[in-house]
Write a structure and sequence with these properties.
Blueprint lengths: L3 H9 L3 H4 L3 H14 L9 E5 L7 H6 L3 E6 L2 H10 L5 E5 L13 E6 L10 H14 E11 L12 E6 L3 E9 L3 E12 L2 E12 L3 H10 L2 E7 L5 E7 L1
Parallel strand pairs: 1-2, 1-4, 2-3, 4-5
Antiparallel strand pairs: 5-11, 6-7, 7-8, 8-9, 10-11
């Protein structure tokens, strides 16, 4: 079992754009995700993207004229973001998302923590810390949008095997193994090498977060949140200052 950073650094980051269907498909998906939030986005607004990766949401925000701070631990993914965002006003920050306040001091009109980034935190204490930090930096009329996968339902039989993507040269499958507070996620990658296939496996822990607990946590930090079904089977939460 590796850390989240190690898992992405050595295993997922090099193929992350491929996993997302390629750059153009991923950015169009990011635009759809933003539209589904129901949040007003306007030129000049400040936006913070936690776990920005290669810019699936940061680039569409930049295209809309936002001043974006993109935070991620992966130098490789941030390099992809930099290459695809010249002139878009996206500032790159290579940092753990729990330490974003070291890099962001001004109030933010929009804070994102999209994809399944929230479950990368390893305890509910860390989740609470993140919510507290965001609540302090959120502008009075701002919004905090989160999506995450609900791992609280037990995995049964073949439902624990999740096909992510495949083509003629690569196959990516996830296998889920349940623990009390976490889900062990095994990313299994088969890669064609000439006429042979090679398999690489890495695993890490994702936090099991109950949507009801998260709603209570938002209330505890002074944010009023609404939960709804999100894209690609995720849970979506949009919160504002109460």
């Amino acid at each position: 079992m590796t850390t989240v950073f190690e898992h992405y650094e050595t295993h997922l980051a090099p193929i992350y754009l491929w996993m997302a269907g390629g750059f153009e498909h991923a950015i169009q998906t990011g635009r759809s995700d933003l539209n589904a939030l129901g949040v007003r986005i306007f030129p000049g607004m400040s936006a913070l993207d936690l776990g920005a990766g290669f810019g699936m949401h940061a680039i569409p925000l930049g295209e809309l004229g936002c001043s974006v701070t993109a935070v991620d631990t992966s130098a490789l993914l941030l390099k992809e973001l930099e290459a695809h965002s010249p002139g878009l006003g996206v500032r790159l920050v290579e940092s753990d998302l729990l330490r974003f306040r070291s890099h962001v001091q001004v109030p933010q009109s929009l804070v994102l923590c999209m994809g399944d980034t929230l479950t990368h935190l390893q305890s509910k204490t860390e989740v609470m810390h993140l919510l507290e930090e965001v609540a302090q930096i959120l502008a009075p009329d701002g919004a905090f949008a989160v999506t995450f996968r609900n791992y609280t339902a037990p995995g049964i039989g073949t439902s624990r095997f999740i096909p992510v993507r495949s083509d003629e040269n690569r196959i990516h499958t996830c296998f889920l193994e349940e623990e009390s507070a976490h889900m062990n996620v095994y990313d299994i990658i088969h890669q064609r090498s000439g006429s042979a296939w090679q398999m690489a496996v890495s695993s890490y822990k994702k936090l099991r977060i109950e949507p009801s607990w998260l709603m209570s946590a938002f209330r505890d930090v002074g944010l009023a949140a609404q939960v709804s079904p999100g894209p690609r089977g995720l849970v979506q939460v949009v919160a504002h200052v109460a």
